[in-house]
Amino acid sequence: MNSEQRAGAVEKQTGRLESFSDGVFAVAITLLVFNLQVPHLPAGAISVPALGSALFAQWPSYLTFITSFATILIMWASHHGIFRMVYRADTPFLFANGLLLLLVTVVPFPTSLVAQYLSTPAAALACAVYAGVFVVINGAYNLLWWAATRQRRLLHPSVTPRQVKRLTRHILLGLPVYLLATLLAFWNPYVSLGLCSCLWIFWALTFYEGSPSRRRLPSGQDMETAPEIDA
Amino acid sequence: MNSEQRAGAVEKQTGRLESFSDGVFAVAITLLVFNLQVPHLPAGAISVPALGSALFAQWPSYLTFITSFATILIMWASHHGIFRMVYRADTPFLFANGLLLLLVTVVPFPTSLVAQYLSTPAAALACAVYAGVFVVINGAYNLLWWAATRQRRLLHPSVTPRQVKRLTRHILLGLPVYLLATLLAFWNPYVSLGLCSCLWIFWALTFYEGSPSRRRLPSGQDMETAPEIDA
Amino acid sequence: MNSEQRAGAVEKQTGRLESFSDGVFAVAITLLVFNLQVPHLPAGAISVPALGSALFAQWPSYLTFITSFATILIMWASHHGIFRMVYRADTPFLFANGLLLLLVTVVPFPTSLVAQYLSTPAAALACAVYAGVFVVINGAYNLLWWAATRQRRLLHPSVTPRQVKRLTRHILLGLPVYLLATLLAFWNPYVSLGLCSCLWIFWALTFYEGSPSRRRLPSGQDMETAPEIDA
Amino acid sequence: MNSEQRAGAVEKQTGRLESFSDGVFAVAITLLVFNLQVPHLPAGAISVPALGSALFAQWPSYLTFITSFATILIMWASHHGIFRMVYRADTPFLFANGLLLLLVTVVPFPTSLVAQYLSTPAAALACAVYAGVFVVINGAYNLLWWAATRQRRLLHPSVTPRQVKRLTRHILLGLPVYLLATLLAFWNPYVSLGLCSCLWIFWALTFYEGSPSRRRLPSGQDMETAPEIDA
Q: I want to staple C100 with a disulfide (CB 3.0 to 4.6 A). Which of B228, C140, C177, D71 is the partner?
């Protein structure tokens, strides 16, 4: 086995773990649609205006659906960002990944909670749980990244310390923001929810900042995760 | 790395994005089955004719299920048509793809809305929402294709301007038709729904028009998306 | 591109279509679990015997769950049996495959129908619908196989006429049996359901009849679908 | 076809079976989230404390969700552990794998059963069914492994008898523990549930015991399943 073939084999070490994780992400993100429920009107009161206002009254469902969808999508992108640099797995890494997947599948639950209670007196708790779940998810990401980087055992040899530092900062960033959103929920649930929405927009925008397509890197490089790998 | 290996690497750049998208499409299309609900009959009134007429009364569910299924299937084919020509991704492209996936997962919601309200006085609004969602989806496709083709940065070098123009026409076509279907819903919901159904049949038929199998291209060419790539 | 590389490219032509189909099969087969509902007991009447008898009373759900699961599994195996021989797709083939996927995702609906109505006076119709869906699915398989084999345009060059004939027989077999099961449902629903169950057991047993592992074929051959490919 | 190409072909023989199984595992594990239901409070009684206590009262749901999630995750890892050593499939192996998949998709059902009945007088039966399902799943694993190893026909030539023996022990271990948990359920449901939880923690810890990363094996080796393959 020459060095090139070995490199190929190395790539594949986490391949199954990754494709299984992808499957879980894809199913979890699609199940969010169950938060959108068709309104039930009493048989005698069905009319275009009645259905229209019933659909409009569901705006918390639409808002949380979009926020959760976008957040899972960003989480998926971050997951790949981590796996791009990792070329093998050990027990703590697998545990951390399992915890992360568990939390990703949980997201439809707080999403539905907020959708149902945002316009009630219990909105504060619903939004606190929502933001709180993202605190825990962010913790799981930090755990996964810590498991990947401690002693650099699992990282691909080509990953530079600067890249590691960059992703560490990137992942840590969410923790204080989501913690703040959790606390703010008890003051104003809408501000809390707004903060959760802003964070994914911010992440999405920064995730590809300094994208190689702007810096004209050689064409053989992977654009998808290249921002993470400051070659 | 020689040019052939680089070509292989280029192919893989959007591989994960694509397989994740495929997963979302596959789950979303399968979740449509939840629009088919087993009718509940009162315990004393269960008989073959009663169940038969209850099943028959659900025809709007069957109709919208088939239309939505076929439309998502065509959307999946179009998605691949676009990704065949794209060999790398940047931020706007990823955003547009995320928006598209969000809208694809939403499809079961308006489908269920039409199924429940087609035989009620609120049918007009239900059908307008249904066609309206497809207007937005078509917009997302145009956005995705625009993100892929602006300055030709993301397109595979082998893609010709004629191919780009052809797919642009192909995708733009749906916009006026779905807009018309949205407006027509307020005049006649059935005509609106019929238009949505016709459009996917039309697309399915034209998607492979001029298929290479008819034009006897060399056997090494990909038949699946070849009509889009007028080699 | 030399002939070997071209062969590799040929393999991949239906790759995406197949993996998308696999995704739909996997989701549809897993969604069957929603036919197993936890029984709801009145708060005052909850006890081990009460829950036990409530669980036992759900036996039609278990029976149809197992039958439908096994049938989709066999259908998945047959789908691969067909795709093993096909190396490219054209419009009619894609249409037939789309129809097949639509019908596969429908299976949870008649399954749930039988589960709810097997012990009621409407059992005859429920079982007739159940078997009837499989008649239509079998028709879709025959259509898919016909689309693959007409003029042999889509078949891999190495496929022999004997293999084609064998699979044709194999797929056609189900049609009369499922038609019989549909008719028998009006005479005795249990016999109809039993026939549907027997058929998948029979298919499972014959699918690998004459398996190469028994006939000691060279080790390079694919065992999974080899029975279909009488080399 | 030289020996290297043949080796490549051998790898792929169970590829589709495996990716289909992965899909089923991924969907089944994600569907567990439906055990987490948003509590419904009467419109007049909605407040933060009321929602808080309603959420807290659902702790059996959270507990069983986590236990089932972790168990399916471990099952997925074991499934791959088996498929790493298998390079082709025959009829009994396919039957055993189908049975296993059926049982994996069933897991959400007993999970929901325990969640709903853990704090009721019927807890004993619910927990017995829960542990009992895992007895049957463990039986299916033993069956699958037996089908893979009898006469060593399906095993990859490089698998050593020591590795086979090790995995045999590993899989057999669960049987007495789950049987015990089933019986204990009638004495104390919580102990039964605790035992099921402990088992997956124990398995997770032992699964990677003696991981190559600790034994400094050459870097070309697969870390994911290496513990099973005592090279």
A: C140
